[in-house]
């Protein structure tokens, strides 16, 4: 009887211990929504749960998560009592096939290097023995001539051969050492990003019946982001402009995104959800700061020197070069769906992608458009000697563009970078397609029409510039050319525009604008001449 009671006690104890042990399962990464400063990772997991209380540990979770963002759901009627996160240190880190291959190569190379060093050392010892036994014969007697000659020949031949072997082995050792260092450097770079520990989510669950449940887990990680990148392609100034919309993704979540569904969103997951409250509106001055002239020449067309007059706007409405009548989507568009809300846009990509956790940029193609474009040239030789090709895009608001850099490919050749800035209030989007070296622009001072003289108590400076534009292209071009004359900010300073070659003049800003039609191979010239009169006891700091 006592034996039966003891056995029953052991059975119950083992059942109780088994119930208290946590249940573990592996999460599978299915989809990722990438934002500009974070990513939302969505997993699925499956586990068999007993009736009553149980602890479920879900592994293969990113170690760099925002714990407050964790969301867990199940397809079964159970109660999740608590959700917690912890890093997983005990499970051996998974090595990629590439890391294993490099480690195996290092082991083989280290073995070969050691063998080379042993052979080199052996040969050097033989040389030492030869050198230590140069003295021949005894102190009283010596070798005859024949014996001595044979010994010398043997020494020279053997010493030379061994020395050559040592030299060859040392060269081999150096090659092996260099290759070994390269492999170790490569392995170090790969393990720095792939050797991060993973995380695990721990659930305390109350369940009325034993069941097998499916779980959905999602959370935010701030070690992933995406940024826009564009390719701008056109064959010539009579062809449509192809705009390829890309996303550059960088992630170091500790998980390789293998065969996952990607969504790139323009939203901000950390944006406050509090409704705004109006406060007092105080006006103040603002001076925009642009990144560089090249990147912003497209948006500075109307702002280079302030607001231009209506007659100076970029456009020849009577001679527009319209590339095509409507946008046409390309093949990649079949796999990308754009979802728009009042706050953001999302690009859902159906094709699965592999994005390793290596903290490097990986390009993902999203959409491609053929856009109706009006091509014109633009030049401000006072600031830059080159002419820029500008594409005007209408109805651009529907493209969901984000400010970002763009690669320019003209007639199949990469010609440089530009910058797309859709934060514009204009009806058309001006995109700079880079410099055109076949449009030669020169701005030179005409010394015969420049002078400086005294008139009573004043100085009078007269300045004249001539601007030459030569079109070396095989077709005619339309060029928007700009220059300026100074504007007085003091009543003692008097400025007069003497010549403008029929430019459209903005009296408030001093901007002069010419709209030139230049046939192939021809040159156009314009002149700007102005005078400045000011007191002779004053010095003008920025007259020229």
Q: What does this 3D model show about the protein?
A:
- Helix 2 (97-132) runs antiparallel to helix 3 (145-194).
- The chain has four helices and 27 strands.
- Mean pLDDT is 78; it is low at 3-19 and 290-331.
- Strands 16, 17, 20, 21, 22, 23, 24, 25, 26 and 27 form a ten-stranded mixed sheet that branches.
- A hairpin with a 4-residue loop joins strand 2 (28-34) and strand 3 (39-49).
- The protein has three domains: 18-93 and 196-221; 97-134 and 150-194, Methane Monooxygenase Hydroxylase, Chain G, domain 1 (Up-down Bundle); 224-268 and 291-535, no CATH class.
- Helix content is 20%, strand content 44%.
- The chain starts with a helix and ends in a 9-residue tail after the last strand.
- By secondary structure, it is of the alpha+beta class.
> In angstroms, what separates the terminal alpha carbons?
115 Å
**Relative strand content:** 35-45%
The largest pleated sheet is described as: 10 strands, mixed
- Count of helical regions: 4
* Whole-number tally of structural domains: 3
Count of distinct strands: 27
Oligomer: single chain
Q: What percent of residues adopt helix (DSSP H or I)? A: 10-25%
Principal-axis shape equals flat
- Average pLDDT works out at 78
Structural class: alpha+beta
Radius of gyration: 39 Å
Poorly predicted regions are: 3-19, 290-331
């Amino acid at each position: 009887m006592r034996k039966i009671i003891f056995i029953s006690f052991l059975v119950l104890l083992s059942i109780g211990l088994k119930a208290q042990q946590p249940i573990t399962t592996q999460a599978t990464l299915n989809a990722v929504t990438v934002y500009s400063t974070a990513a939302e990772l969505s997993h699925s997991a499956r586990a068999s749960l007993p009736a009553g209380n149980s602890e479920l540990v879900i592994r293969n979770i990113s170690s760099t998560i925002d714990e407050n963002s964790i969301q867990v759901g199940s397809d079964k009627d159970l109660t999740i009592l608590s959700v917690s996160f912890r890093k997983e240190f005990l499970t051996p880190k998974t090595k990629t096939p590439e890391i294993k291959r490099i480690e195996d190569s290092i082991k083989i190379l280290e073995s070969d290097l050691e063998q080379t060093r042993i052979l080199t050392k052996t040969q050097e010892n033989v040389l030492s023995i030869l050198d230590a036994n140069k003295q021949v014969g005894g102190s009283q007697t010596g070798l005859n001539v024949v014996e001595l000659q044979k010994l010398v020949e043997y020494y020279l031949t053997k010493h030379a051969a061994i020395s050559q072997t040592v030299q060859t082995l040392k060269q081999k050792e150096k090659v092996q050492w260099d290759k070994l260092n390269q492999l170790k450097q490569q392995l170090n770079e790969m393990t720095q990003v792939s050797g991060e520990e993973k995380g695990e989510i721990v659930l305390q669950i109350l369940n009325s019946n034993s069941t097998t449940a499916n779980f959905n887990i999602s959370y935010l990680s701030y070690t992933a982001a995406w940024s826009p990148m564009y390719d701008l392609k056109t064959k010539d100034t009579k062809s449509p402009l192809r705009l390829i919309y890309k996303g550059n993704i960088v992630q170091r979540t500790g998980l390789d995104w293998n065969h996952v569904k990607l969504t790139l969103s323009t939203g901000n997951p950390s944006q406050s959800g509090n409704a705004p409250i109006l406060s007092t509106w105080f006006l103040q001055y603002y001076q925009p700061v642009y990144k560089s002239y090249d990147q912003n020449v497209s948006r500075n067309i109307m702002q280079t020197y302030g607001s231009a007059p209506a007659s100076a706007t970029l456009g020849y409405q009577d001679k527009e070069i319209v590339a095509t009548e409507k946008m046409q989507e390309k093949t990649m568009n079949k796999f990308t769906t754009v979802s728009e809300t009042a706050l953001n846009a999302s690009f859902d990509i159906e094709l699965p992608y592999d994005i390793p956790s290596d903290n490097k940029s990986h390009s993902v193609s999203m959409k491609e458009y053929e856009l109706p474009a009006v091509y014109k040239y633009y030049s401000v030789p006072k600031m830059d000697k080159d002419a820029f090709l500008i594409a005007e895009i209408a109805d651009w608001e529907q493209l969901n563009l984000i400010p970002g850099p763009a690669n320019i490919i003209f007639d199949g050749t990469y010609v440089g970078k530009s910058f797309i800035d859709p934060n514009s209030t204009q009806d058309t989007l001006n995109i700079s397609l880079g410099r055109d070296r076949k449009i030669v622009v020169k701005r030179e001072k005409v010394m015969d029409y420049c002078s400086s003289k005294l008139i009573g108590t004043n100085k009078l400076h007269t300045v004249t510039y001539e601007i030459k534009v030569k079109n070396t292209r095989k077709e005619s071009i339309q060029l928007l050319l700009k220059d300026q004359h100074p504007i007085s900010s003091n009543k003692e300073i008097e400025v007069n525009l003497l010549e403008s070659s029929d430019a459209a003049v903005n009296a408030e800003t001093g901007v002069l604008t010419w709209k030139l039609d230049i046939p192939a191979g021809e040159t156009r010239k314009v002149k700007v001449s102005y005078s400045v009169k000011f007191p002779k006891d004053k010095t003008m700091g920025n007259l020229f």
